[in-house]
Design goal:
Blueprint lengths: L8 H19 L6 H8 L13 H21 L9 H16 L3 H9 L6 H27 L8 H13 L13 H15 L5
């Protein structure tokens, strides 16, 4: 199959990432071949190797880019004027929801396909994940230290809150009964309650 008319290197690379993300999310990494990805992009299978060394590298690059985008977006967020632990927790909850919800496929493969990474690639992604988790852990620890929050185990609370927020991707639909603004407020109340705090 010839390269699609009007395509160029940058465009094809973008299409490759999008096609691989969608196929991995729909069918699973193990079930998707480079030939299938090439068919979606509209190029010969061999042409994909101009953009990635192999399927493992492609998966790693997708997961790594997702984590780098996440960490960069957090760094570039609008910082609230107040800097109490409660303000920081509210900022984190709203950020996490708004960043992850439009990226359903990326979030799905970031969690479900970790097992398919080589040990070396897995450790790179885990390092980035731990860096993101430490943001919330530090917020909760600061709040616990000044009496704003109360936890039996702050690390477990960190994992539980992130899992709850990320779980929104599995059920929320734009056409559903509640607007995103309403759901965000509900989740914020749930997190604050779990932290033993009142807004």
């Amino acid at each position: 199959m010839a390269r699609k008319s009007g395509s160029n290197g940058e465009k094809t690379a973008k299409q490759l990432r999008e096609a691989a993300t969608a196929l991995f999310a729909k069918n699973g990494y193990a079930a998707v071949s480079m030939r299938q990805i090439a068919r979606e992009v509209g190029v010969q299978a061999g042409a994909l190797y101009l953009y990635t060394a192999d399927k493992q590298t492609l998966l790693f690059d997708l997961l790594d880019q997702h984590m780098q985008d996440l960490l960069q977006a957090w760094e570039e967020r609008a910082t609230p004027h107040s800097v109490t632990p409660m303000d920081k927790l509210e900022c984190f909850v709203r950020f996490h929801i708004r960043f992850h919800l439009p990226r359903g496929d990326e979030v799905f493969i970031s969690y479900m396909e970790l097992r398919n990474l080589t040990p070396e690639n897995f450790e790179v992604i885990q390092t980035s994940r731990r860096k993101y988790e430490s943001i919330l852990h530090d917020i909760l620890s600061d709040g616990e230290a000044d009496g704003t929050f109360k936890f039996v185990d702050t690390k477990v609370a960190t994992f539980a809150i992130i899992a709850m927020l990320t779980g929104l991707n599995t059920w929320y639909r734009d056409e559903g009964r509640l607007s995103l603004d309403m759901v965000e407020e509900i989740y914020l109340d749930l997190v604050m309650s779990a932290a033993g705090a009142k807004r």
